[in-house]
Design a protein that fits this description.
alpha+beta; Glutaredoxin; eight-stranded mixed sheet; single chain; 191 residues; 6 helices
């Protein structure tokens, strides 16, 4: 009887530790996942699906909202530094981009998104977008970007490969140099 309990416990532990897709906090997403067909409205008013926005470029995405006064300004500073580091690597940055993705599509219209980018001196590699209200839940569920409390989103950076697939989730608030390193390594991989 005791042996049977031990075998059952071992089977449960083996099932719990089985390696599968990286869905936990940080790490590779295996296999890379295509985002849902949601609509993202950019700071210039255009609406694009993630596949159109991310396709052909390695893209780093952060979640934020323009009315945030807690961690979002830190995240904006992180992307400002990442963009500065990427631009210093010229000429091989045309296939890299940064996207600040709002979690507040009601308040973050194109004007607010453009002001967000302006606040941090964003250049040509950095865009801002907000999903349609109807698409917000699907977008956050795909990214696994929800968090409880005042900051309703993670401070991870999500890295998409050139095919527009989610390939990596970072730790919370990674250093800008680490974001650039990961983007550069992902860009060096064959498409």
């Amino acid at each position: 009887m005791q042996r049977r309990h031990l075998l059952c416990a071992a089977a449960v532990l083996a099932g719990a530790t089985r390696v599968g897709p990286a869905r936990a906090h940080g790490g590779l997403v295996l296999p890379p996942e295509a985002p849902p067909a949601v609509r993202l409205r950019l700071q210039d008013g255009r609406q694009l699906a993630p596949a159109a926005l991310f396709g052909g470029r390695v893209t780093a995405v952060q979640l934020m909202f323009t009315g945030c006064s807690a961690t979002c300004p830190i995240q904006g500073a992180l992307f400002a530094e990442a963009e500065r580091l990427l631009l210093a690597r010229r000429p091989a940055v045309e296939d890299l981009q940064l996207v600040s993705a709002s979690i507040d599509p009601l308040a973050d219209d194109p004007k607010a998104l453009a002001a967000w980018l302006g606040r941090f001196g964003a250049g040509g590699l950095w865009r801002a977008a907000a999903p349609a209200v109807a698409d917000l839940d699907r977008w956050l569920d795909f990214l696994q970007g929800r968090r409880a409390g005042a900051d309703r989103h993670t401070t991870q950076v999500y890295l998409f490969d050139r095919r527009g697939r989610l390939a990596l989730r970072s730790v919370d608030l990674p250093p800008a140099a680490e974001v650039v390193r990961l983007m550069t390594e992902l860009a060096a991989r064959p498409a």
